[in-house]
Description:
By secondary structure, the protein is mostly helical. It is built from 8 helices and 3 strands.
Amino acid sequence: xxxxxxxxxxxxxxxxxxxxxxxxxxxxxxxxxxxxxxxxxxxxxxxxxxxxxxxxxxxxxxxxxxxxxxxxxxxxxxxxxxxxxxxxxxxxxxxxxxxxxxxxxxxxxxxxxxxxxxxxxxxxxxxxxxxxxxxxxxxxx
Length: 141
């Protein structure tokens, strides 16, 4: 009976999926020397150099304190820097950070290739479905 409860529980199954995909992502991004989340943050800064911390939090769906910690770790590695402009804290990538861009994209592709090899096209559909479900639940919380 408990098995049925767990299978039908979105909380349990989402966390189980989170643990499995986190392991896969950590393996894929190991070559970059960064956690997957730190790499995603850098990808966002590549897209918009001079991005605000608040905007980064919105893109990554992370709390401000988490974004601050990630930025501090990446700044300590010399991969980005923070410039205060009035009340805004703007984030820029350094040359050292730019040098990692190809590696990060290769890691991203390695992760996608790995779960696509297992799930096929259903992996992309599942990702989009989960994103949409997350949006729905966030908006109604």
